[in-house]
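User:
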Amino acid sequence: MRVRPCRSLALALLLLSAPTVLHAQNQAPQYPQRAVKIVVPFPAGGTADVLPRIVAEKLREKFGQPFIIENRSGAGGNVGAEAVSRSDADGYTLLASPPGPVVINEALYPKLSYRPSDFEPIIVLGVVPNVLAVKSAFPAKTVGELVALAKANPEKVTYASQGNGSTSHLTAVMFQSMTGLRMLHVPYRGTAPALQDLIGGSVDLFFDNLGSSLNLHQSEKIRILAVGSANRVDALPGIPSIQEAGIAGFQSITWFALMAPAGTPASVIEHLNSAILEILQDASVAAQFTGMGVQSVGAGVTETRRFIEGERVRWRDVIKSAGVTMQ
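Assistant: Predicted structure:
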């Protein structure tokens, strides 16, 4: 398989300097006037859940209205995403999601009960490198040793994922294609249960995002062999990138976006975008993001939409090249 190198991180970094659109005070809509529900289409505990909780609390403080996180997992994020797509387009039900339900699943599933491309992008909260993490007792200490072990034992090495067609699953598929490996896939319903079994030793490895795995690596409950970004990251200066470890062209990151149902008024989307841009500049929020290995992004609505459309095309090409399909 020929995989086009990921440029998500570079694009995300470009967003940092993109112009933003701020409303004058007298143009801001009278929103919100009641509680806002933010659906996370994965279980509680992972970065996809923690990041929107941080932002939701700041939104509550800013607007004086509850911003409630609701976890609705299942079917690779499709359950929660479908629920949001069928909600009233009034800004009171939103979706906080990594790439899967927003840009990946429409290329994976022959039929979905919602159209991911119909969601209205609000903002990308942050980006984080994916990492190659293994159970603490795994015999391989480097990427090279892992490749040698897996080649000598086809379909014996097991890898967890956040679910069929998730970013972690596709990253593992890409890794196998670029190394000629055959490993055994063990899908879970989200990051937290996958990590639990990695800690317990039930599975051998997991392409997780850095935010979820960093503390577990530091406490030696799991081991991170390499990072999926093109270069090393500040949080793990002694850990090589997968490219550096010998897999040329390999790159994988995860981003987390806030989306609204199709037809949500542009004034509401701009209002939320402006409010969250301010929140992402808050020192306490930045510290919490950094502590999880997440780089805050933030950009205007137009730039956010352009970025997500580019990601949709990129993942569609990866999926097509890998021949991955879901029923």
